[in-house]
Design a protein that fits this description.
The complex is a heterodimer of chains A (116) and B (303).
Chain A lengths: L1 E5 L8 E3 L3 H12 L1 E2 L14 E6 L2 E6 L2 E5 L5 E5 L4 H13 L2 H14 L3
Chain B lengths: L1 E6 L9 E3 L2 H11 L20 E6 L2 H7 L4 E5 L7 H16 L1 E2 L12 H11 L4 E7 L14 E7 L4 H4 L2 H6 L2 H6 L22 H11 L2 E2 L13 E7 L6 E7 L5 E3 L29 E7 L8
Antiparallel strand pairs in B: 1-2, 1-3, 2-5, 3-4, 6-7, 8-12, 9-10, 9-12, 10-11
Classes of the chains: A alpha+beta (116), B alpha+beta (303).
Chain lengths: 116, 303
């Protein structure tokens, strides 16, 4: 499973490989989310925008409290990540698995995400 | 039957040509509908005077049913649409106009099929989308302007976000530096990598060094005409601990600045969704340090 942190403009965004066991936990957490009536719209700005997770053939986009799960059949499911709990968990996994640079980036992002 | 109307005039009504040949009408519709993404509701937002697009009206309900389309279609064309395929479609429609008959109650008004008018329309499709202008050191010029009144000739290109956004592969693999340089390399280009000496840290000084190595000049260090197009670009940096990055903007013909944040869409608005009239004062999110202005050039190395 990989977590791409969508943040930079000039530099390439970091893609961090996380431990295999995280995929199962991700599935469990996704199952707890409720469908979102609003369509998924990724944040579109300079600075941190969200995460793109690839787990097997599935791609999960996470941005500003919203989640989109896209399967190989081309269909997508939009979910609510109210409180950004899934996003914070993914950032924690990225911080644990990444290098020093990634660690610092995630710290900066978590400060922003946790800002009231 | 088709009624073809170029959207071109400002004061007088646009002329129309009626195409009654069913086979030709069907062939033209087939071609038009091969790529529906080229059709629009109207002209591009920045379309101005001159040819803005071509309207196609189906005057036969069988055609509308057979092709499953609304009775009116519009092909944006002219500068600013930027897509060669759109121009090809427009050329085809212009050729069809020549073979049609003017649709007007005024028997003397034959402009829709006039050879000179149709040639004018064709020329509109190839008019350049950039303009050359002087970049002058203002009275309160920045330190790097140098003594005296410096005027460098630069080019300002039309804002054409579709070129960067419509193809996902292009959008994902071209970044702010690609956009500012107006060079689509699909390599997520990095300053200095083209010349073999990429930046080693992200500071104004080091990214500037790398960009100059690629061939850019600081503002008011003019390029000759042989280096056209010479775009005016701006460099900013985010110094936030943990979020160290750079970003570039490019001045557009319309007067605003365009940019492309990483693998997201190219746009002309800032983080507050305001049109970017000044990269020094717009909302740049975490990119709080303004490093300066530069010119790109045709011989710029970029990778």
């Amino acid at each position: 499973m990989t977590i791409e942190i969508l943040a930079y403009s000039g530099r390439p965004d970091p893609v961090i490989a996380v431990e295999d066991g995280a995929a199962g936990e991700l599935e469990t957490r996704l199952a707890r989310l409720v469908p979102s009536p609003r369509g998924f719209a990724p944040a579109d700005r300079l600075g941190y925008r969200g995460l793109r997770v690839r787990s097997g053939a599935v791609e999960i986009e996470v941005s500003d409290g919203h989640v989109r799960v896209s399967g190989t059949d081309g269909r997508a499911t939009d979910l609510d990540d109210a409180g950004r709990g899934l996003e914070r968990w993914l950032l924690e996994r990225a911080r644990a698995a990444g290098g020093a640079d990634d660690h610092a980036l995630v710290e900066a992002i978590l400060r922003e995400v946790e800002r009231p | 039957m088709l009624l073809i109307t170029p959207d071109v005039f400002s004061g007088r009504p646009n002329p129309s040509s009626v195409v009654t040949d069913t086979a030709e009408a069907r062939a033209a519709l087939t071609e038009l509908l091969r790529d529906r993404s080229l059709l629009g509701d109207g002209p591009a937002a920045d379309a101005g005077l001159g040819l803005r697009g071509i309207g196609v009206e189906l005057t036969n309900d069988e055609l509308a049913t057979d092709f499953g389309v609304a009775s009116r279609l519009y092909v944006p064309a002219g500068t600013g649409t930027g897509d060669g395929r759109a121009s090809e479609l427009a050329e085809r429609l212009i050729a069809l106009m020549a073979r049609g008959t003017p649709a007007t109650a005024d028997a003397g008004d034959t402009v829709a099929t006039d050879a000179g008018f149709l040639q004018f329309l064709r020329a509109q499709l190839t008019r350049p989308s950039s303009a050359t202008t002087g970049d002058t050191a203002a009275p309160q010029a920045p330190p790097e302007a140098g003594p005296g009144d410096v005027v460098c000739q630069i080019e300002l290109g039309a804002f054409n976000p579709g070129f960067w956004n419509n193809d996902a592969n292009v959008r994902l693999h071209n970044n702010c530096y690609n956009y500012a340089s107006n060079k689509r390399t699909n390599t997520f280009a990095q300053p200095g990598r083209g010349c073999g000496h990429q930046y080693t840290q992200i500071t104004c000084a080091e990214v500037t060094r790398a960009a100059l190595c690629d061939g850019l000049h600081r503002r008011f260090d003019c390029f000759p005409a042989s280096q056209k197009p010479r775009y005016l670009v701006a460099l900013v940096v985010s110094p936030t601990p943990g979020f160290i990055d750079y970003h570039w903007y490019r001045k557009q013909k319309e007067g605003f600045w365009g940019h492309k944040p990483g693998n997201t869409a190219a746009r002309n608005v800032d983080n507050s969704n305001h049109l970017i009239l000044n990269p020094e004062t717009c909302d740049r999110g975490p990119y709080t340090i303004f490093c300066g202005y530069f010119y790109t050039c045709v011989s710029q190395k970029i990778n």
